[in-house]
TrEMBL record:
PROSITE patterns: ABC_TRANSPORTER_1, ABC_TRANSPORTER_2. It holds the Pfam family ABC_tran. It comes from Meiothermus taiwanensis. Residues 21-251 form the ABC transporter domain. One of its GO terms (molecular function) is ATP binding. SUPFAM superfamilies: P-loop containing nucleoside triphosphate hydrolases. Its EC number is 3.6.3.36. This is Taurine import ATP-binding protein TauB. Keywords: ATP-binding, Hydrolase, Nucleotide-binding, Transport.
Amino acid sequence: MMQANTSPELSAKGSNAAAIVSVQGVSMVFPNGTVALKDANLEIAQGEFISLIGPSGCGKTTLLRLLADLIQPSSGTIRIGGKSPEEARKARAYGYVFQAPTLMEWRNVLSNVMLPLEVMNFPVQERRARAERMLALVGLEKFARHYPWQLSGGMQQRVSIARALAFDPQLLFMDEPFGALDEITRENLNLELLRLWRETGKTIIFVTHSIPEAVFLSTRIVVMTPRPGKIETVIPVDLPQPRTFETRETTRFFELATAVREALRKGHGYEVTE
Ligand SMILES: Nc1ncnc2c1ncn2[C@@H]1O[C@H](COP(=O)(O)OP(=O)(O)OP(=O)(O)O)[C@@H](O)[C@H]1O
């Protein structure tokens, strides 16, 4: 298995000025001494779909939070589109989708999607037009006047995705967005997310505990292991696009799932869902 920081693919990408995300020698040690991330190296090209997978505590959320400038690294360098995470945050370079939909119960769906545009002072007409476009993109245009409590969990998460995309960020960070959903809903949303990814050309960084989900969605899978949190390896996923329900039944899909499972075992990461 290739090591993340010695992978020929990564070093090739490392010299690629077009990388939209560059993580070099990044460590995160919390004040209580927990080494949440140790010497992480990762280069992500524009338009990739990257999954971060690994057991609880391996630093997946920490890595996303570092990229999003919610926390600052103890050492190392992060660049987002050539900018520091702080500059990228101020330039609205990314949208963030959390595990729970975090919608405002007293606002209807349209008004939830418009919220970030209000905060950013977009003109009223444009707020509405953009929010309607985003709702159509996630297939919820007929639910614009509904309230969050009137929607299923999967629909609420689609609203969150529409909201994260409303201001047209280049990057989408998604922290286990489908973790709380049933398997069928999750598989449908996986397909929808891939369609959205193809149509918009966004770069997506997606945290998951599920091996099949990571294999199905990704162009590359970053396998992380705990104590200390680190990138164990990066596995390129060469399944053809566009992916379909049948993709999951191919031999190559099973081979890749096995490769991910072995990489997780190598780092003693057992707590993954099948
Ligand atoms: N603010 C904090 N202070 C101290 N330790 C923290 C803090 N945030 C995270 N940690 C620790 O850092 C390690 C990595 O946490 P992180 O949340 O990044 O893991 P994860 O891979 O996302 O886990 P999960 O799959 O459970 O969400 C864990 O040991 C966690 O307890």
